[in-house]
Amino acid sequence: MDILLTRWGDRNGPGRRHECRRGTHECARHKRRFSRDLLRIDNSWMRFLLLWTSMSVLLAQSNNMIRVIAFGAHPDDCDIRAAGTAALFQAAGAAVKFVSVTNGDAGHQNMHGAELAARRLAEAKESARRLGIEYEVLNNHDGELLPTLEVRKQIIRQIRQWNADIVLAPRPNDYHPDHRYTGVLVQDAAYMVVVPHLIPEVPALRKNPVFLYYEDNFQRPNPFRPDIAVSLDAVIDKKIDALDSHVSQFYEWLPWVDGRLAEVPADLVERKAWLKRARTRAINAGVRASLVKWYGSEKGNAAKYYEAFEICEYGVQPGEARIRELFPMLRN
């Protein structure tokens, strides 16, 4: 059956009608115009998305809220090194986001692939819910991370879109290649986040963030320096609660790797207490001195739990006054 198609204002003249009774599948004129209309709609939609992204970033840049983004190689790394500080930031009204650069699809003795990646994503989302923050897991394979241009651009986008004031990441010397390369990737992004013509669809930051390293125990080529130490006494249980979300890691994979799987309690309450003992450390002299610097002698010497950070040589080099502005928990 033929279908009558009409279009006003075509080459027959303004307001005159072109009639086609050959069927929609045979009318070349309508095919061309239909394709042009689809392309016009598609281009308009893309322009809208780019405009929306740009407006979102610019609005974030005009907001005075402190914005913190933390990168880890796997969907539990940020929690280990910064969940307590994240809880304090969140309580002070800051915006906090954790980003896992890989999906964690290799970190288990029994599960792997898409099944494990889905489980670890769910654990990360549960940790975010308990902390009151955002958590994003990038879809790069666990154990295969390399400091490529593609992944560097992922990091740059994340920092820009979050409009970060503070960026947390591991140092680029570590036993795990994914940890090392996450540190390298964030270092490589440290200047590029302000370059407008790189990834122009996401507006460049107008100010470089402060880049900080997590604490670690590695001594070569140089040991960790605790430039900033944050007391976690008020939020240590909240941090352990966040770690407890990652069941596949803290109660299965990591104890199995260490040959301690039999030590993990079956009771939910007992195993959380076990986790707290396993995931807190003694305060060394350098960290104690940093706590006293930031909190004063009485509170600094009384602190039992902490997280510490080293100022990266890349990015903004903050003085003591600026650090206190950025870290509300350190203000006197």
**CATH architecture assignment of the largest domain:** 3-Layer(aba) Sandwich
Q: Indicate the mean pLDDT.
A: 88
CATH class of the largest domain: Alpha Beta
Count of DSSP E strands?
Answer: 9
Low-confidence stretches: 1-18
Q: Residue share in helices?
A: 40-55%
Strand order, main sheet: write it out: 5-4-3-6-7-9-8
Encode the helix/strand succession as letters.
EEHEHEHEHEHEEHHHHHEH
Distance between the termini: 82 Å
**CATH H-level superfamily of the largest domain:** LmbE-like
Which percent band covers the strand fraction?
5-15%
Structural class: alpha/beta
Q: Summarize the biggest pleated sheet.
A: 7 strands, mixed
In a few lines, what is going on in this structure?
The chain is of the alpha/beta class and 332 residues long. The chain has helices at 28-61, 77-91, 113-131, 149-162, 177-192, 236-244, 247-257, 268-278, 285-295, 297-302, 320-326; strands at residues 5-8, 17-20, 67-72, 95-100, 134-137, 166-169, 210-214, 228-231, 306-315. The strands form two sheets. A seven-stranded mixed beta sheet has the order 5-4-3-6-7-9-8, with helices on both faces.
